[in-house]
């Protein structure tokens, strides 16, 4: 492991102390490991992939009043202090700027493979058993209802609607999580997403059975 990666790990761990549990160091670590796993099958710049994975949530906008510039500023300052080349910094910041689900409509065409890898890894951590746990943790953090039979999912929301949405946690499955399987970029991402998708479908079936005392 390079010294820059080691220093980035230390930096992220320190920066995310006390973060909401779905967006803490352990989330970053899982995305980093998944990114490395996917990168094994792709022709890519692995340093860009690792740095992008480690810094992708360094200042998640939803915990900073929607400000999407903080993460870019913090990451640039850190990478410049580590004497990382401007070319690599630019590629890492591109990943941070374009990785999120809500920004998918604004992302350029022909995305670089490094972004595709980190995006798949981040989306994989949003689904499956871990995804279920993270979703309910964040719903509790926001004090959202778990479920309400009369509140229906809002599909095809705009970016602004998505940012302001305070729907139920179960609705979030339909508004985002169940869509992610078909948004995977890489063959490895698609393969890993299939099992996690099935886990969520099984969970929802069981949830409704228990909710309805079926």
What can you tell me about this protein's structure?
Helices cover 59% and strands 0% of the residues. The chain is built from 10 helices and no strands. The N and C termini lie far apart (52 Å).
Number of helices: 10
Strand content: under 5%
What's the oligomerization state?
A: single chain
User: Structural class of the secondary structure composition?
Assistant: mainly alpha
> Roughly what is the average pLDDT, rounded to an integer?
92
Q: Secondary-structure blueprint of this entry?
A:
Elements: H1 3-15, H2 25-39, H3 46-55, H4 70-81, H5 86-98, H6 113-124, H7 128-141, H8 159-164, H9 169-175, H10 187-211
Helix pairs in contact: 1-3, 2-3, 2-6, 3-5, 3-6, 4-5, 5-6, 6-10, 7-10
